Amino acid sequence: QVQLVESGGGLVQAGGSLRLSCAASGSNFRINGKDWAWYRQAPGKQRELVASITRGGSTNYADSVKDRFTISRDNAKNTVSLQMNSLKPEDTGVYYCKASVLLGPFYWGQGTQVTVSS
Predict the structure, then answer these.
(1) DSSP category for residue 86
(2) Could you give the CA distance from residue 27 to residue 19 in angstroms, rounded to a whole number?
(3) pLDDT tens for residues 70-97?
(4) Nearest one of 45, 7, 48, 4 to 24, comparing CA atoms
(5) Using only C-alpha atoms, what is the Rg of the chain?
(6) How far apart are CA 76 and CA 15, in angstroms?
């Protein structure tokens, strides 16, 4: 059974940084060869795409986080990360990682809370 576990969330002041990690495990599930994304959901709002990285390594970011967030993957550690710098209160929310298999299923983690105080 595939499991994605996010970590690294917490409380940080505006202007600070956090690094989120998404560790994949189970059923010999490897991060390479899959598309990955980080989403977030603020209270009372819909889940939105924050950043993504394709199996080929192409990245894409929401306009609101461009030049502040960086998505990356470490095949050796079987993890996908989201480096978040210059955090703003509007970045507050639950962050989820998602793995998509080409022509196959997708998987979600359970989420990690990020709170940015002003």
Answers:
(1) S
(2) 26
(3) 999 998 999 999 999 999 999 999 999 9
(4) 4
(5) 14
(6) 31
